[in-house]
């Protein structure tokens, strides 16, 4: 389905080379966009970049990580920017896009709420000469000029392999596995499921594992996830493993398992390496998460956006197939990392979360045990 999958380092290097080859500037730029001097006589002032984040509910990352890293990158490049969050509201999403274009955005980067809303926004931007980037989520049938994300099928594969490892460590015999999938309107959730089903389905087929309840969670809503998983456990009380598509859904399942004193006994997966997810791993209630180095994703997307704002035509290093639009979208895809108890320290060492926020209260001793210094 995808070509040109790159390591994080290779993606960044290839993108840098692409920008340089297309005439990208090097050297210092002012962080004050209103008074940034031209690099040479006759150079036009860079355009403005608009970024629309999806919500604060599906994952903490959008406000705690993506916003911060994108702001840092744009400030460093001296490019004017506007970052807003649609907070899960499709009407607000479209209104924000219209306002950004009216206010002079020449580049629009979006994390869609669904492909329909995303397509409407992208198509309108394109019709007005605004360059577009799909960030993290591909808009199926859309018209984005570029796509920057992680290899999301690989994310799901790591989750499936992680659950297998945790069930094997527990010497589970023909375990019943429940799947708590992400939002059906998010193409990433579809890719995650392709990844972990690619690992789990052969085990279902062979009889080594038994497939239990399998349900998607609308809008990645954690409250709904708790209700759905409670119903799953009522339907199948002998669930022995939970493939939860991210840390929020995983925590919802863990909260239900705690009521039955099953936390720590039933392995649960996750994704995003949130503080909550990592603390659940340290506590032994969650078996693994998937770490996506969001700073590198944000930096790659910002570099594209800055180049476009300067009127350049950057070359991405790979492509992803838009199955609805039947086109290959120029893309930069980064590699995810599986995180278990023994390598939670890698996420701290990378600066994604701090020891101070992770190792609070009851987790201090667990951090020491996990080698976090």
Topology of helices and strands:
Layout (H helix, E strand, L loop, with lengths): L1 E2 L4 H14 L26 E6 L7 H17 L3 E5 L4 H13 L2 E6 L4 H13 L3 E5 L10 E5 L1 H18 L6 E6 L5 H20 L3 E7 L5 H14 L3 E6 L2 H13 L15 H9 L5 E3 L2 H16 L8 E5 L4 E8 L2 E3 L4 H6 L5 H4 L4 H7 L4
Parallel strand pairs: 2-3, 2-4, 4-5, 5-6, 6-12, 7-8, 7-9
Antiparallel strand pairs: 1-11, 10-13, 11-12
Question: How would you characterize this protein structure?
Answer:
The chain is α/β, with parallel strands linked by helices and 373 residues long. The strands form three sheets. Strands 1-11-12-6-5-4-2-3 form an eight-stranded mixed sheet, sandwiched between helices. It has a three-stranded parallel sheet with strand order 8-7-9, with helices on both faces. The longest helix is centred in the middle third of the chain and has 20 residues, at 187-206. The protein has 13 helices and 13 strands.
Compact overview of the structure:
With 373 residues, the chain is of the alpha/beta class. The protein has helices at residues 8-21, 61-77, 90-102, 115-127, 152-169, 187-206, 222-235, 247-259, 275-283, 294-309, 344-349, 355-358, 363-369; strands spanning 2-3, 48-53, 81-85, 105-110, 131-135, 146-150, 176-181, 210-216, 239-244, 289-291, 318-322, 327-334, 337-339. The longest helix is centred in the middle third of the chain and has 20 residues, at 187-206.
């Amino acid at each position: 389905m995808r070509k040109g999958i790159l390591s994080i380092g290779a993606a960044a290097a290839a993108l840098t080379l692409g920008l340089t080859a297309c005439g990208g500037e090097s050297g210092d730029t002012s962080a004050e966009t209103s008074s940034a001097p031209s690099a040479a006589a006759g150079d036009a002032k860079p355009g403005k970049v608009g970024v629309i984040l999806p919500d604060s509910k599906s994952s903490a990352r959008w406000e705690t990580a993506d916003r911060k890293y994108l702001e840092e990158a744009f400030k460093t490049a001296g490019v004017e920017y506007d970052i807003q969050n649609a907070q899960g509201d499709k009407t607000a999403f479209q209104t924000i896009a219209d306002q950004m274009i009216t206010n002079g955005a020449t580049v629009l980067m979006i994390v869609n709420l669904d492909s329909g809303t995303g397509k409407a926004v992208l198509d309108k931007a394109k019709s007005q000469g605004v360059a577009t980037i799909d960030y993290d989520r591909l808009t199926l049938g859309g018209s984005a000029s570029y796509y920057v994300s992680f290899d999301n099928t690989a994310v799901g594969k790591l989750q499936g392999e992680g659950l297998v490892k945790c069930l094997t460590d527990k010497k589970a015999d023909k375990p019943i596995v429940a799947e708590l999938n992400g939002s059906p309107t998010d193409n990433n959730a579809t890719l995650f499921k392709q990844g972990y089903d690619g690992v789990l389905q052969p085990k279902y087929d062979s009889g080594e594992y038994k497939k239990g309840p399998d349900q998607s969670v609308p809008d990645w809503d954690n409250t709904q996830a708790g209700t759905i998983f409670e119903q799953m456990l009522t339907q199948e009380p002998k669930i022995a493993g939970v493939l939860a598509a991210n840390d929020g859904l995983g925590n919802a399942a863990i909260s239900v398992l705690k009521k039955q004193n099953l936390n720590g006994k039933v392995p649960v997966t996750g994704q995003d390496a949130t503080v909550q997810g990592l603390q659940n791993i340290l506590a032994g209630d969650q078996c693994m998460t998937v770490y996506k180095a969001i700073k590198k994703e944000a930096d790659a997307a910002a570099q594209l956006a800055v180049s476009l704002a300067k009127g350049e035509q950057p070359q991405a290093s790979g492509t992803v197939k838009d199955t609805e639009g039947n086109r290959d979208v120029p893309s930069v895809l980064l590699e995810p990392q599986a995180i278990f108890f023994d390598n939670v320290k890698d996420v701290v060492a990378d600066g994604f979360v701090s020891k101070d926020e992770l190792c609070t209260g009851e987790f201090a001793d667990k951090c020491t045990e996990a080698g976090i210094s």
